Amino acid sequence: GFALFEKKRNQLKPTPEAHLYHASVMRLISQVRETAQDAAAIANNQLGNIVVASQPTFVDTFLLDAIRSFHETHPDVGIRVLDVGMRELLRTLDKQYCDVALGITLEAGNYSAQVRKLARCEARCIMHRDHPLAKEKKISKDMLHNEDFIDLMPDSPLRKRVDEVIQTESKDRRTVVEMGTMRGACALVDRGVGVAIVDPFAELLLAGTSVVSKRLVPRIEWDLVFLTPDGVPVSQVSESMFTEIQLQVARLKGMGILEE
Question: CB burial class (10 A; 0-12, 13-18, 19+) of residue 89?
């Protein structure tokens, strides 16, 4: 221990150690107050961190608007976005490396997660506006004979589904380029390299391009889902992010890009 006071001329004066101790106590009291304020902020959904895992197409499109709106109402919440493919997204959920995730139900198997459906998606066929198919209202698989295709990578769930629906029926379908992102596929279509089958969010990337989008016959469909790790309580911050994403999904439904 140490003395807090020393007696000089019938007066008690703090020792140098007492001054240091007083400063330490004041810092501790300040930290306790800040911790209490942080706890209140977290309870009020105004502080903390959130990790969002998402496939690249969503990061390139509507998720950006959801994050902007979320940040405006939660300026002190840190946001980290993991831009990953579907396989890595499922692993990230399973390992609880993220708080929330956006995924699809194409070849997802059994999610190790809590799942909330957001919308129904329908694939689109895109081509340059000068392409002969651009005048058609809908594109059937028979129309795609002898077409040059810009495809996603073979491990893409959408690519696998396209192969199942079209490749078996159209042996003359030619893959001329494989791309890792939807944005890249759209850019090559804009340059007249070929046609592509993409998810409906790609329509958000076509403004200012020479690319047109058509519906397919037969339809290729799947669900857009909001995911949280299984067995983990969902925080208020995560619920707020879900609300912002729901609002953006509702906007896309109004635009005809997504369905119920």
Answer: buried
Mean pLDDT, residues 100-117 taken together? 80
Q: CA separation (Å) from 189 to 148, 192, 207, 257?
A: 10, 5, 13, 19
- CA–CA dist 50, 38 (Å, integer): 16
Dist. CA 159–CA 205, nearest whole Å = 19
Q: Provide the β-strand partners of residue 51.
A: 80
Element (H, E) at 204: none
Residue 16: asked if its preceding bond is cis (omega within 30°), the reply is no
Which pTM value belongs to this model? 0.76
Asked whether the beta carbons of 154 and 245 are under 8 A apart, the reply is no
Mean pLDDT, rounded, of the chain: 86
**pLDDT tens digits, one per residue of 184-196:** 999 999 999 999 9
Residues with Cβ within 8 Å of 18's Cβ and at least 6 positions away in sequence, in order, are 3, 4, 5
Burial of residue 205, with CB atoms counted within 10 A of its CB: 0-12 exposed, 13-18 middle, 19 or more buried:
buried
pLDDT at 253 > cutoff 90: yes
DSSP class of residue 131 equals S
Q: Residue 169 — very low, low, confident or very high, per pLDDT cuts 50/70/90?
A: low
The tokens of 156 are what?
């893409």
Q: Decide: helix, strand or coil at residue 126.
A: strand
Q: What is the pLDDT of residues 44-92, one digit of tens each?
A: 544 578 999 998 889 989 999 999 999 999 998 989 999 998 888 888 9
Using DSSP's 3-state secondary structure scheme, residue 103 falls into: strand
